[in-house]
Amino acid sequence: MFNITKKRLKKTGLPPGIPIYVGEKRDEKVIISILDYDETQYQEKEAKEIEECFVFKDTPTVSWINIDGIYQVDVIEKIGKHFGLHSLIQEDIVNTEQRPKLEDFGNYIFIVLKMLYYDEKENEARTEQVSLILGENFVISFQERKGDIFVPIRKRIKNEKGRIRRVGADYLAYALLDTIVDHYFIVLEKLGDKIEGLEEKLVSESRPETLEEIHGLKKQMIFLRKSIWPLREVIHGLERGDSSLIKETLRIYLKDVYDHTVQVIDTVETFRDMLSGIHDTYLSSISNKMNEVMKVLTMIATIFIPLTFIVGIYGMNFKFMPELGWRWSYLIVWAIIVVIVVSMVIYFKKRKWL
């Protein structure tokens, strides 16, 4: 949270509409890929300059312009100026801390959402911001880094599989949204396996490292909830909206994505409840262990109370103590001590205190 605050300090005092990159510093090359297609033809290329995308604004075919890397603000400004994107939209595109949202500007729709992926090295879920611009015959997608989950969509377009080549840009935008939401289930499945493993570990042993894992997963659930929860409003806005860019035949597909989003949210809430239960179980196990230790110490102390009393009396060294002069007094005291200890142990076991 403090890192987010520090990132936003650079924008303090500036007028609205000035795009300033807010996110991790990167030095990778910005990659601009273009897919242009209709039912009969298809072309794919990688643009060396952003100006190569401009000719696809008003083509009758469907154009998908994907930009990997949003840290070069001048690239965003150029494409924003040519495609008529509002300055505030350009500002939101380069701000990777945006909340998922939907804005309809009439001639285009702006969508911000989070794409989940699982970092195997760090063993945790991470997010990447994706911004979509849906126009009459084009979709522009902005991603933080190279590499995404849209490869199957590219293959479907290239191989003419499904109805994606026969419909418009709105269906392409739907396909991107659907792929992102479906990928949530893959990440959640890995987190679910991790939570189940944590439960099994908790049954066998409770260590401080277990508590750290629990807190780490709870933070991830909060992070995911913040990224996923607003997405329901975005999909619902597309489904119920009256934009001319969304055809009526597409709304049933958006309803399906909305149902998947609700299911994802329910899964996240379930995981949060499970982690709260695991946390309570951990604290209970630690408390039970502490109670067992205190129980043993109490038994030991209870057994030694009468013994301490006996040796205390005969350790006072008064001159006139007849027992001190007896020949077998030492052995008798030991016999009494043993009898007391055995009797107390037998009594404790009968009461099931031991």
Q: What would you note in describing this structure?
A:
The chain contains nine helices and seven strands, in the order αβββααββββαααααα. It is of the alpha+beta class and 354 residues long. The protein has two domains: 2-285, Beta Polymerase, domain 2, CATH 3.30.460.20; 314-350, no CATH class. It has a seven-stranded mixed sheet, sandwiched between helices. A hairpin with a 3-residue loop joins β6 (124-134) and β7 (138-143). α5 packs parallel to α8 (251-313), α7 runs antiparallel to α8 and α8 runs antiparallel to α9 (329-350). Residues 1-6 have low confidence and may be disordered.
Could you provide a short overview of the structure?
This protein has 354 residues and is of the alpha+beta class. It has helices at residues 2-8, 73-82, 87-93, 151-159, 169-204, 208-228, 231-240, 251-313, 329-350, and strands spanning 31-37, 42-47, 62-68, 101-104, 109-119, 124-134, 138-143.
